[in-house]
User: Fold Integrin alpha-8 from Clarias magur.
Amino acid sequence: MPAREARACFREISRLISVSLVLTDLLCGIIAFNLDLENPAVYSGPPGSYFGYSVDFYHPTQDRSAVSVLVGAPKANTTQPGIVEGGAVYYCSWPPSEQDSCREIPFDKANNRMIKVNGTREPLEYKSYQWFGATVRTHRGKVVACAPLYHWRTVKVSGEMDPVGTCYVAVQNFSAYAEYSPCRTHNSDPEGQGFCQAGFSVDFTKDGTLVLGGPGSFYWQGQVITAGVAEILNGYSLKAILRKVQGEKQTAAASDDYDDSYLGYSVAVGEFTGDSRQELVAGVPRGAQNFGYVAVINSSSLSLVQNFTGEQMASYFGYTVAVTDINGDGLDDVLVGAPLYMDREFESKPREVGRVYLYLQEDTLLFSASIMLTGIHLFGRYGSAIAPLGDINQDGYLDVAVGAPFAGQDRDGCVFIYNGEKSGLRLKASQVLKGSWATTGIPAGFGFTLRGDSDLDNNQYPDLIVGAFGADKVMVYR
Ligand SMILES: [Ca+2]
Ligand SMILES: [Ca+2]
Ligand SMILES: [Ca+2]
Ligand SMILES: [Ca+2]
Assistant:
């Protein structure tokens, strides 16, 4: 039964339920309220732009029922003069129409800024190939989008090119913009913040504080950075290249034992100490001698409060992290992806299938042993994306989606839907979404990016956005 009919049926049943519970079986058979797999809405972007590399829902400040979709396309060409493949973020109105559903958001219309060095003008920065739109995230009316491969010249006399990364924020329905490049500092070069790639990962806390990962700082130890969006906008000027935002926090460099660990490869937030100040959660996929770990970090002091360590070397544990309350006990739980995990059922023949780990919070900073979900497709990169979905089947427990973007014989990608329950998570997927774009050179990457837990069509059921950057497509399932 198509999901929409099931839902109409459900509403009908809701009315009848007080009359007779027996009727439910007569009307619908087995009741399963799920995503409609047959008719996803599709947005298309410019060919080769990697449209769909990042996605999010956007709730405008005023009319909160008018939800739309934001889509990052980090290889898009823009109207910025002299910039090649600067990357863009598109605003896509709901529902998609035949043409012009998506338009570029004008975060930055300018060329590279210039400086005078010994009497000649030189670029201060390099926006070509900067991957703007590799990440995008919204929090109510606030939006952040980043270019982790943005380079700048540094303050040195001999100009260098350091990939510090930069982000742009937008507020008030895209009427105000500001740039935020927290690693563009005097502390350049690989030993400093020169290779930071700020904005490689992004999130917001529930009170709207921006959280950025910069996995390349300090010889790739990586770092996590937080700042208030109001503070970023307050007193912002294009000329303030080396600007310290008030209240900004950055994790510091550690001893060289921590080199090459990539703190901040992924970030999320959650409540794990029983107060109301959320902690930061950051993936460190090459930390702990390459076993990978996930750090829970106090958001005030930026001190480490908890670690989850990976199970297998080079599995990329912490490639992605997500936080949701999967068993409905009011405590946030943690999900961690390890997309390069190898199944060693037969020691002689390991199979790279990927794995996702779920840690249930039992008490303040006390977690269950991990519950594991393992991929079934060789080289499918299962666990590349994990998205809290809200409660898609309306049973009172939150649900989650896991992407395996290169799964299947034609590498067309899969997304697995799992339902939460009192004991944690039903280990069998309730639904499997399949990509429908054959590989043309690069795989479509269906499920490389996922975002859920918002209701686009206002039918009270949360919807799911699935990106397929290799096909320059974004699907909406509802
Ligand atoms: Ca807390
Ligand atoms: Ca929980
Ligand atoms: Ca549910
Ligand atoms: Ca919906």
